[in-house]
From TrEMBL:
This is MsnO8 family LLM class oxidoreductase. The keyword Chaperone does not apply. To bacterial alkanal monooxygenase alpha and beta chains. It comes from Staphylococcus edaphicus. Its EC number is 1.-.-.-. InterPro entries: Bact_Lucif_Oxidored, CmoO-like, Luciferase-like_dom, Luciferase-like_sf. Gene3D superfamilies: Luciferase-like domain (3.20.20.30).
Length: 123
């Protein structure tokens, strides 16, 4: 049996809203499940107005609630933006909401444009 997966960057089409893009992502995940895909990954992007993937843990949870069998995961949580412990805790909780259906991919790519990776000194 062939294992097939989708990596969705959740693009926002011309004249569409963030809500429209999220609805399209849900529709695609449901179609992937119907067509017996194995996994559905969402990508994390920052400071790119054409995509909605700024919070993979929230989008993954939403997709898990809108599907029944397909595994859902992050196509790469960019750890430089977060505490690794917090990421693990979030995905541990998510995996208890949908046991056996959650995948956590991590990365350390720059994560987009300079503003997305700039470190701010908050005093």
């Amino acid at each position: 049996m062939t294992s097939m997966s989708i990596l969705d960057q959740s693009p926002i089409g011309t004249d569409e809203t963030v809500s429209d893009a999220i609805a399209h992502t849900v529709e695609l995940a449901q179609l992937a499940e119907k067509e017996s895909y194995t996994r559905y990954f969402v990508a994390e992007h920052h400071n790119i107005p054409e995509v909605v993937g700024t919070s993979p843990e929230i989008l993954v949870t939403h997709l898990l609630n809108q599907t029944k069998r397909i595994r859902v995961g992050s196509g790469g949580v960019m750890l430089q933006h977060y505490s690794p412990f917090k990421v693990i805790e979030q995905f541990h909780l998510i995996s208890n909401i949908a046991p056996g259906r959650v995948d956590l991919g991590i990365g350390k790519a720059p994560g987009g444009f300079p503003l997305a990776t700039k470190r701010f000194n908050l005093k």
